[in-house]
């Protein structure tokens, strides 16, 4: 996988910025100096990331994943990972359970566990209910067991009811057969899409439990990016490539952090059931600097400071996908006993598990599509006034959050986009 190398400064910035505005300003109306507007009936803000375990886990896991030099375009679902770990925690005991609880930042009481399960279950239901209207979504989560003792029926029932985690026995074949089974499962979970390949082999010994999750997401805007306002531009990522860029002027929640040199944009999907949050550095750079700023407190401040503003958006039309093995990141975050068959305690998964069960892997497939189309519905007219410019022609960070619960469904980095290579002709 490509390294996250530092990128060259952009040449002729003034010319590029000017040329990016021209396609979108033709549809705007002249207006007063102030571009920030707050019309009556503005949709309510989703709950804050503060205190939400999907944001807390997601940001910690994101930093651990991105610490790897080979991490490019890492996309994953904090909600699905948290739900799978929540189910696993319900089947564990002793220090194994304690480490899962620490990872999810949940107290040890049974009441607190029930509350966490309820919150994750409500978030999963909220996204499921909005599927097909605000976005197109395929998700699946499973726990595979390799030549393991019989799994408790009550554990399977509880995991499926609360966390939508299925149980699937794994065949008795070798590592290649295990990988083939997992990839076939992931393809079905992604709605028929082939996921990015798993790096290396899957080594599932007898007694291994493997958590797997797959997510495919395509948001439907309130107002579409029309084909007439789509053209080929340069994306200044790890490598410079020519890609299709979508342009549109509209009203969005927007904030510019002048001190940290970051633009924050929240774009609602149809019906305001979910939204995309984009973090874009002012200048062309890799994402290391911005990633160091990421924590629930900072994100909450940024989101609270956004206001309904006229913004001209330019976004790449792209598919971003990744396949992640999360064993190393989760271990770095404190989940250590689960991998060791001698000390792992999964007595809630099977009453015959002592010394026989361990966590053999956590794999995550994700696909995010940025497309032009909107959903079908009636939306209010927009009065565009001297729009700000949000020109995402260089690496940015993306979040997808639920408007009702505030849960974080998806997050990731866009470092590179496939396209025609840009050759230096100097």
Automatic annotation (TrEMBL):
Pfam families: Serpin (PF00079). It comes from Channa striata. Residues 1-26 form the signal peptide. Residues 59-417 form the Serpin domain. Residues 28-50 are annotated as: Disordered. PANTHER family: SERINE (OR CYSTEINE) PEPTIDASE INHIBITOR, CLADE H, MEMBER 2 (PTHR11461:SF290), SERINE PROTEASE INHIBITOR, SERPIN (PTHR11461). It comes from the Eukaryota. Keywords: Signal. This is Serpin domain-containing protein. GO terms for cellular component: endoplasmic reticulum; extracellular space. GO terms for biological process: collagen fibril organization. InterPro entries: Serpin_CS, Serpin_dom, Serpin_fam, Serpin_sf, Serpin_sf_1, Serpin_sf_2. One of its GO terms (molecular function) is serine-type endopeptidase inhibitor activity. Belongs to the serpin family.
